[in-house]
Design a protein that fits this description.
Strand order of the largest sheet: 1-2
Shape: elongated
CATH architecture: Orthogonal Bundle
Pfam families: HTH_20
Protein name: Metalloregulator ArsR/SmtB family transcription factor
Structural class: mainly alpha
Organism: Hymenobacter saemangeumensis
CATH topology: Arc Repressor Mutant, subunit A
Keywords: DNA-binding, Transcription, Transcription regulation
Strand content: 5-15%
CATH class: Mainly Alpha
Number of strands: 2
């Protein structure tokens, strides 16, 4: 069995990978967009806003929560979800750094004849 050798990568690389994995489903992106569009936490039925079953939405919420991108607090029988803005600011900086580095010195592109 092959094991991931995450220790061979920097903490920044590992954090970027965790965040990218947490966002690697369109339903999770839609949930984040929904939460970002609200000025308060959502304690209503998020599943009513998406074309998915409630159990599926719950699974995606758990993935986002496990990554720390959202928080959920229990108030009686309802859970109030909102974005973890501190982590989102960190993610913004990490991804901006990656994207800046990726396009700073392009080795080849559509106009180049690099043969790849």
């Amino acid at each position: 069995m092959t094991h991931a050798k995450t220790a061979a990568f920097t903490e920044q690389q590992q954090q970027l990978a965790r965040l990218a994995k947490a966002l690697a489903h369109p339903a999770r992106v839609a949930i984040v967009e929904l939460l970002a569009s609200k000025t308060t936490c959502i304690s209503g039925d998020i599943a009513a806003e998406l074309p998915l079953a409630r159990t599926t939405v719950t699974q995606h919420l758990q993935e986002l929560k496990a990554a720390g991108l959202i928080s959920g607090t229990i108030d009686g029988l309802t859970v109030c979800y909102c974005l973890n803005t501190a982590l989102w600011r960190q993610a913004q900086a990490l991804f901006a750094g990656l994207f800046t580095q990726a396009v700073a010195n392009p080795a080849c592109g559509p106009a180049d004849a690099c043969g790849c």
